[in-house]
Specification:
It contains three helices and three strands, in the order βββααα. The protein starts with a strand and ends with a helix. A three-stranded antiparallel sheet has the order 1-2-3. The protein has one domain. The chain has 86 residues and is an alpha+beta fold. Strand 1 and strand 2 form a beta hairpin. Helix content is 41%, strand content 28%. Helix 2 packs antiparallel against helix 3.
Length: 86
């Protein structure tokens, strides 16, 4: 299991931490952001295929910002997967 922390940009959450093991996400935690929404995202993605979650969440927009906490998670997952599979 590899642990990651993503520094976000353009969203309320300051960082997002998560683990990937065997291609599955676990322990997703948003540090900041809308507590109800970020807690729901964390519960929904627990144990899910990391690549599939990145595809689903990528491009999700929050109020015209061009990104969102979910999009930032997707970007972080993609970066993590790229590092683990160069």
């Amino acid at each position: 299991m590899q642990n990651y922390t993503v520094q976000t940009s353009g969203v309320c959450a300051k960082t997002i931490s998560f683990s990937i093991g065997g291609g599955k996400l676990s322990g997703v935690k948003f540090h900041g952001g809308c507590p109800g929404n970020t807690a729901a995202i964390s519960k929904l993605v627990e144990g899910a295929d990391a690549q599939k979650i990145a595809q689903i969440l990528k491009g999700n927009d929050c109020g015209g910002r061009g990104t969102s906490c979910a999009d930032q998670l997707a970007r972080g997952i993609e970066q993590a997967l790229a590092k683990s599979n160069p």
